[in-house]
Design goal:
By secondary structure, this protein is α+β, with helices and mostly antiparallel strands. It has 2 domains: about 130 residues, Heat Shock Protein 90; about 110 residues, Alpha-Beta Complex (Actin, Chain A, domain 4), CATH 3.90.640. It is about 30% helix and about 25% strand.
Length: about 280
């Protein structure tokens, strides 16, 4: 009887240990988002894993002392003055970063990032650079960069914006000429103007250089899910008070203007959107 009790107790302890080591079926399922397929057929890159990293550098502001300014007032003005630099970097993750084309998009190593930001930092001036990822699919990575600069004594801060679309197969930034047919610039300008006129915050009277159509942005070609983005920087199109407008022209409107063999046209075929032009 004693031996039977011992065997029963041993079996019970073994069962309890197994229960504790077994997975909890009521727990939340594991996150498989990191196992997303980031490649197309034939090992073409569809998207990249990434994170945005921020580096900061502080530099004390030591302005010239104004005539008749007390030491206390000077100290308060210096402490509240803008200074330093903040910059965001795109850090690619995963094995795709070893591909030669993507190395061009990878940010510098931490030590070099810190050196770059410290070198850009100024006393009595605060500089900020931020990134925004608008599209990361079908072999494209679209980024927008916003820069701000605030200086002690300036009338107002200065700002700038740019947009870039990278072909992940080559790492090359696309130009408008790579996408739009030759001679289609005027038609594209009219499309952009039409969308700008729909913006309630901007009227046609506000354009600085508008005649019949808005000029194409100098450094502002971007991409989102719905279409191409045309990003203007400060004073490029409208007065400072209206900021930096960005216009999205849907792909359906752009189809007649696109080069049929361009990377964007290939992307639209993959998405089944190029057929709209064929049916017209």
């Amino acid at each position: 009887m004693r031996n039977l009790s011992y065997v029963w107790l041993s079996a019970l302890l073994t069962f309890l240990a197994a229960c504790q080591s077994a997975p909890d079926k009521t727990a939340s399922p594991p996150d498989f988002s990191l196992h997303k397929d980031y490649t197309h057929a034939q090992d073409r890159i569809a998207a990249v894993r990434y994170e945005l990293l921020t580096e900061n550098a502080e530099v004390p502001c030591k302005p010239e002392r104004e005539e008749g300014e007390s030491q206390a007032d000077y100290q308060t003005r210096a402490e509240g003055a803008p200074s330093g630099c903040s910059q965001e970097f795109l850090h690619l993750l995963g094995p795709d970063t070893l591909r030669p084309a993507l190395r061009l998009l990878q940010c510098p190593v931490p030590a070099k990032r810190r050196r770059l930001v410290h070198a850009a930092a100024e006393g009595c001036v605060h500089t900020e650079e931020s990134l925004q990822v608008d599209y990361n699919a079908y072999g494209f990575l679209a980024l927008r960069e916003f820069n701000g600069n605030e200086a002690l004594g300036a009338v107002h801060p200065s700002h700038s914006a740019s947009a870039t679309v990278y072909d992940l197969r080559t790492g090359r930034a696309l130009k408008l000429a790579d996408i739009i047919r030759s001679g289609a610039d005027t038609a594209l300008s009219r499309l952009i103007t039409h969308h700008l006129e729909q913006d309630e915050d901007i009227t046609s009277d506000d354009f600085l250089t508008l005649s019949k159509a808005a000029p194409l942005p100098r450094n502002g070609l971007g991409m989102v899910e719905a279409g191409l983005v045309f990003q203007y920087t400060t004073y490029e199109l409208v007065a400072y008070v209206y900021g930096m407008p960005a216009v999205t022209v849907p792909y359906a409107e752009l189809l007649p203007l696109l080069r049929p063999n361009s990377p964007v046209a290939h992307m639209l075929r993959e998405r089944g959107l190029w057929k709209q032009q064929k049916s017209r």
